[in-house]
Amino acid sequence: MITDLLSEFYGRKKTTWVIFTGLLASILIIVILQIANALPAVSFSPVDDTSFDNIFGNSWRVISASMLAYLTAQIIDVNVYEFWRKLTKGRYLWIRNNGSTIASQLIDTILVILVLFIGVKSSDEIKSLILDGWVFKIFCALLDTPVIYGCVYLLRKYFKLQKGEEITF
Questions:
Q1: CA–CA separation, 83 and 15 (whole Å)
Q2: Nearest to 76 by CA among 140, 141, 136, 19
Q3: Is the pTM of the predicted complex or chain greater than 0.85?
Q4: CA–CA separation, 77 vs 130, rounded Å?
Q5: Where exactly are the structural domains of the chain?
Q6: What is the DSSP letter of 41?
Q7: Where are the beta strands (DSSP E) in the chain?
Q8: Which of 22, 76, 101, 162 could tie 141 with a disulfide, CB 3.0–4.6 Å?
Q9: Integer Cα distance of 151 and 156 in angstroms
Q10: Where does residue 5 rank: exposed (0-12), middle (13-18), buried (19+ CB within 10 A)?
Q11: pLDDT per residue over 26-65, tens digit each?
């Protein structure tokens, strides 16, 4: 929903910049966790080295899977949103909101599940996880439709924008 709102008011290029900024922040988190994992725990730490390693030692894989999916899905989301906005001439917010989210979240779900579970779970389990995750995300996307309409209405009013007009700097 956030990328849809950003796309609505700032356009594809600025929203893509925000997406890459989020990716850089996640890379920084991976680096910090790897450094923390390489250093020994201080004597007064309630968490010993083994516990920290058990919890965060493999976090790079989870975060990397998430970031690969995030980057790919959000770029797809922004471009599909823009496609629907142009095709509908700025009308039918629900189509671009739901259409872009449903398409991008399929890609997001497939990538995360594959990176995390390929070679760990059977192909039937993987297919089930993908379907369950994607259906849940579709449900959430449909539920946020009234929220995005309210946000768009309030933001247009606040920034004194006409339908289809973007915020410029």
A1: 14
A2: 19
A3: no
A4: 18
A5: 2-159
A6: P
A7: none
A8: 101
A9: 8
A10: middle
A11: 889 888 988 988 899 898 999 889 888 888 877 777 888 8
